[in-house]
Amino acid sequence: MTSEHDAAGGGSAPTPGSGAGERSAIDWEALRTRAREVMTRAYVPYSRYPVGAAALVDDGRIVAGCNVENAGYGVTLCAECGLVSDLVSGGGGRLVAFTCVDSRGQTIAPCGRCRQLLWEHGGPELLVETAWAGIIPMSEVLPGAFGPWDLEAGTLADPSTPAATDNEKETPHG
C-alpha cells in the first residue's frame, strides 16, 4: 500500500529549512493527481464548476479538498477551505507546495480569499503552481499579504482605551 508520503515523492519527510520547498524535491504530478481525484467529489449543483486542490505539508503528508456549494452562495466553500480543514484536522503543519485544478485537470488560480487562507498556513515561501507563471512563491501570488503581524501592530495595549482617531494616530512619516 502506498502512503500519501510515498506518493508525494517518498524519502524522508521534508522539514522546514531542509529544502522542503525546493521545486526539485516536490512531486508535482502526485499533487496534480490528488487534486484531480478529489475534484471528482466536488458538490457543485449550481455552478457545475468542480475544483480540487492538493498540497504537500512539511511533514510529507498530502492534504486535499474540493469545493462544496450551497444555495446561499455566500456560504459556499472553496476547495482550499477543505484542504486547510484537512490540514488542521490531520494535526496541522505548514503547507510547502500547492496546486489547484478545474474539471479539465487544468491548473487554476486560487481566488483572493483563498490566497489569504493559503498564506496563513504556508506563508510567503509556499510554492504555488500557477497557469500564468509556473511554480512561484506565495509572496508573488499575494504580495503585501495581511498577516498576524498586522493584527499585533493594530492591537490596543489596553482594550479599555478608545482607538485613536485618524488625526491622533502616529505614522512612520510623522
UniProtKB/TrEMBL annotation:
Chain segments carrying region Disordered: 1-24, 153-174
Pfam families recorded: dCMP_cyt_deam_1
Cellular-component GO terms for this entry: cytosol
InterPro entries assigned to the protein according to its UniProt record, in alphabetical order: CMP_dCMP_dom, Cyt/Deoxycyt_deaminase, Cytidine_deaminase-like
GO molecular function: cytidine deaminase activity; zinc ion binding
GO process terms (BP): nucleobase-containing small molecule metabolic process; pyrimidine-containing compound metabolic process
CMP/dCMP-type deaminase domain segment(s): 26-149
Family assignment from sequence similarity: Belongs to the cytidine and deoxycytidylate deaminase family.
PANTHER family given in the database record: CYTIDINE DEAMINASE
This protein's name: Cytidine deaminase
Originating species: Serinibacter salmoneus
